[in-house]
Write a structure and sequence with these properties.
single chain; 183 residues; 3 helices
Length: 183
Amino acid sequence: TRPCQIIPRKFIFLRDCVLSARRFWGWLTLCLVLAGLLIFWFVNNWRIAIDPQAETCIDARILLINLNDRTPQKGELYAFYSPDTASPVYHPGTRMIKRAVGAPGDVVVIAPDLTISVNGKTVGHGFQHLKTNDPEILKRFLGTREIKPGRWWMMGDKDSSFDSRYWGTLPEANIYGRAYVLF
């Protein structure tokens, strides 16, 4: 057998410090790599949207957008690029968030009392942004229309929203993600 080796106490402390430092740097490196991967994944799959408007069209200021969820479902919030028909109020491609209230095949009715309904369910009222009571101009907006395949009827939660009642249906290709309210 081998005789016991006696190591002075000060050397044991130094050995433990070296091992402790190695463990520390190993754990720190592992944590930094994991944090970097998590940040990389988040940046490639999510966006945070902040609505700076004084009057918002939905009850939210800060939203989280899932860039991988682009297939709309009725009743959900979606982030999209504004269609060409939203100009001159919004430049084509302006980022917007609205609720998908009408799907392809749904029937939208804008009645003479300015009530907007989808498949018989009221979803909004009025045209606050027209700033006119001229019956000839209002006639252009009134009537019944069926939403064509590949298009969606998008509206804000408030009647003051500038949405599909003004610029018509949104091409599904303009949707870039589903939005979730954070605050």
